[in-house]
Amino acid sequence: MRLRYRIPLALITIFMILTLFIASSYALWKVTVYQETENIIETGCFSIQFEESSSINLNNTYPMSDESGMKLSPYSFTIRNTCTVDAKYTVYLNTLEVNGEKLADDFIKYSLIKTEDALNTAYSLDTAKVNLDKTHFSFDKNILKSYEIATGTLKGKTNETNEDGESVTYDLRLWIDEKGTNSIGGQTFEAGVSTIAYATKLTENSSAENLD
Fold first, then answer.
1. pTM for the whole thing?
2. Residue-wise over 41-69: b if at least 16 C-beta within 10 A, else e?
3. Could you report the per-residue pLDDT of 91-110, keeping only the tens digit for each?
4. In whole angstroms, what is the distance from residue 97 CA to residue 184 CA?
């Protein structure tokens, strides 16, 4: 075979090998968020229902831009006040123990918006406020870190028979920051969503007063 044909064929072979290596490296990354069952938190007459409608399971994902991450299919969940007492709630994202090497939280980006909101913003998980008290949460795996990612208030039912308590639905998206490289191949990130709520009295301008 002439030399002028050998050189292009060698370049094509090298390119194909590099392509297969990059594809196989990306396929090793894994991001999973799950909520296995309906989560109901109750204190006396007050209760909040945590209803999930879908789940994020980003097996074989890869680092991506914020623009691409915010277009992913969301994990949607609804928080509903089913009592006659007004509520103030906090939503937490709890990072969980994994089998094998864990992907560091600073590689994880997220967005959390109310379903009706048009504005979608990306955040780095490791910049969210850390919750030091993890005793309220229960998962099959140990909680490594608990992040506060949203707060809000919900009006209670007008009476015991009505079903007019307020609710809010959130869309949560998670992805690997585009700064991720092949050095994090094979690592895993898992997390679970939880919410804590307590009784408040909402004034006319919707500000909450703690009833502790």
1. 0.76
2. beeeebbbbbebeebbebeebbbbebeeb
3. 999 998 888 888 899 999 99
4. 17
